[in-house]
Amino acid sequence: MWDLAVTLIATDAKHYRLLPFRFMRMNTGNDRDILLTADTGEYLHVNDAQLQALSYFKVEAGTPFYKDLLARHFIYEPGHHDPFPEMAAQYRSRKDFLFQGPALHLFVVTLRCNHTCQYCQVSRAPLGGSGHDLSEANARAAVDRLFESNAPTLTVEFQGGEPLLAFERVRQIVEWIVERNVVEQRDIQFVITTTLHHLTEEILDFAQQHRIQFSTSLDGPAPLHNANRPTPSRDSYERTVKGIQWVRERLGHEAVSALTTLTSRSLEQPEAIIDEYVNQGFSSISLRPLSPYGFATKSAHRLDYPIERYLAFYQKALAYLLDINQQGVYLSESYTSLLLKNILTPFSSGYVDLRSPAGAGTAALVYNYDGYVYPSDEARMLLEMGEDGLRLGRVQQPLPELLASPVMEALLSSGVAEALPGCSDCALVPYCGADPVEHFARQGDPIGHRALSSFCKKNMGLLKHLFGLLRDGDDNVQRVLLSWLNRRAYSDVRLPGYRG
Amino acid sequence: MAMLRKDTHFVIQHLHEPRLLKVITLDEFIEQGLAVCAGSADFSDLLLWLPNEERLRSPHLLSLPVGGFLTPKPLVGDFESERLHLHSPKDAEVVQPGDVIAITPGNTMARVLYRRGSDSNLLFMTDRCNSLCLMCSQPPKDIDDRWHIEENLRLIDLMDPIEENLGISGGEPTLYRDGLLEILAKCKAVLPRKSVHVLSNGRLFKDPSWIEALAAIGHPQLSWGIPLYADNAEDHDHVVQAPGAFSETLQGLYNLARAKQIIEIRVVLNRLTTPRLPELAHYVFRNLPFVQHVALMGIESTGLARKHYEALWIDPLDYQESLNQATFFLFNRGVPVSIYNLPLCLIPAHLSRFARQSISDWKNLFIDACQQCAAVKHCSGFFKSHTDRWQSRGVQQLSPEAFSAYARSAQ
Amino acid sequence: MTWPVTLQIDSAAYPLGVVQRAAYALADTVAIQIGIEASKICLTAFPTTAKLALPPQQAHSLILQHLNDFALRDHINHETTGLREVLARAALAGCGI
Asked: Which end of chain B has fewer CB atoms < 10 Å from its terminal CB, N or C?
């Protein structure tokens, strides 16, 4: 069973032994204010006395607390039940994404765009000209790379600039993939990330044929959206909303999703942004903070904000969302839903930006317009800041070669949170991830310093807030959070049940 | 709805050896012949259902090449034949056309091994068991009863081929490993439309050689019902009175999952299992996420349960909160869950959507209080072993209004 | 109490690794200078620019709490040596990483 050379303590008056676990003080003033987490991701809220008793073998056998500690894999009884198989099963389930190749493939077909968004992470090439377009040869090579991943389910996402300005390339890529998939038989979903300003009937016909989904930016009500995302005709909001309606008419209500980018101005209006999403009939909203790439960095003094301001905004927005959900309006926050999945289930959410080992390169690949392959969208955005150090290689190189590049090695060695200083002791590590690219961008090195890391502060802030809600929130709050977890109607979650 | 027993006395004439026989009407015999049986059978396996009037009207029927005749009432007139004949059943309802019965020379008892239309038919494997659960409704016997295997293999041939549920249980069916595997293989071959559910404590599956054997069967609709009574070894092992059972069952569950089997977890609700029922639900969800169903079951007050009344009995009204917490914990996380063997009057309205009518027809009954109850057609009723001291203080008839509250909650 | 906040601790009770981890965790709040003399470790702490308003008494409590917590983590790690790696290896066998 325990196949290791471990010196066991000779005199065994202890009736139990410890299993690896971590703890964190929540600082909420609750009487069980210490969060214990096991390597399996199971958790318990305890107080100081209980933590001391647990750590120094003073918990009395047969008590409910003792049984909880056994069942949730904080302790075991040598010579009795061996919990190793079920612990390994949970751990494996959480890291399930490791057993397949990259599943998310981004094709940056052009950098041309008609917007001049303040926070844009990529340079905005003029509308005419094709100097910043993905060539046909490179596109073909990218499709070959795609199928070299063994993932049974693949998401193909078209990015830019504005991908619809290079629609002919998009069409080609989709057709090549569909043709090749007759043999490959994977489950493939196509997504186009677009402003929706350049839609045509032809594009929508094609989208309908291949069940392509659309993802767009909607920053909030018109004044906010237009202020964040200027266009020469100053009507970004109006054209985006028209685009949303058009896509829904042709392809169905769920064919388009939206996300926000939050500027300093956005942080002043959580309710207005959420109301806008309700008015536009969305069932999910993504309240993601600004990231440190591209123009966002250059205009940081105007746009950027300390992560604490984002966390304050998030708490207000979440409270408002919980409220309207209880009124019967279903609108989930997508990052929150991911975190809930990590906390409440033994399954991995698979989200590329929140996993350990990090998702850059292992979960996602970016085929850039310049013919190079990057491990993440953020990595290619760094390019636009003059930083080309995160290229995996040329798109003509076979995938195994790209994934064995020195860049990948550097990312992997700084991408395992459980091994990083700060993270390795953090109780939240089972639910969190590593983001070497973001740390490289913000702090200049892929590991970075956790205490100073906004990635860390963001995730810690959100996770602590959610743990607090799960422990202290009333029954109706539980019901909303559970409805997001399993994508059910609030009314379907009749009662919250055991909180675990 | 009265419970219907599975055996009754007949007057049996001209029986020379133990037989399994398929009861068949004349119409069926003419229209279907041997096709009424799912597998290989011959005419000598058929027992012709022959009411007195038909026999007296058409005496030539006695020369049909069947295995024997059954007169479903007291015999009228003479029976002029040396052929096998059953008549004058003590309870005329017990044996019906389509049923398969077992009879033995020197014994007037005919056992119904298969009942057409019952949906609770089962293949009984053995009285032996490797556990000794405190609430065991079928106390184990330490005997060699391998003969059940042959009987079951024969029985499979004589069942109706229709789609229905078929159980396999005991005792502990896995104790006769090769026999069980042979029976499962034959179910797949001969009864492909029947979904098979095996009740087992899963302990012997800790031996990984079962994985290949099970995966090889490839039955399209096979599932396993495995009990788990606690989230920790001490409590579970106490309930099943077998040290190490918890560990073995868990290893067995993982091996079943490796063999890609469909798994249901069963929990008998009693004083020992209900205090930590929510914690057990959490344990199942975290450690056994492949479980496809959880069955929470009211206790059957028979067998060993009677001896352990003090340790086991708890009024269902007193564990409603635990049941509520556990049920919704699982349901909210997408794990299908059902509540069995509890009358509707003891289940709060918001849990009624999980209640199933689950007590086998040959075991269930309703008491006096049920006569005016609006819910009687939807309720599982009580076990026939039910007695006063196992009766909740909450048993009561539901008015039509109360019952429609249940129906609405079940939406 | 005034700045800088100082603590003297016994290096047997609080090994250097524990002190380093505590200092790392508090890096956003206080900048800690670690000095080692025989069997004692001396900590000198100043508030960071983000936390200039932090009362020294509070900083002292915070540092002590972190030291104790990391000492406890050290104890837990000692009691569970090797188990984490065995678990990860068994769970992830066959994934190619």
From this structure: C
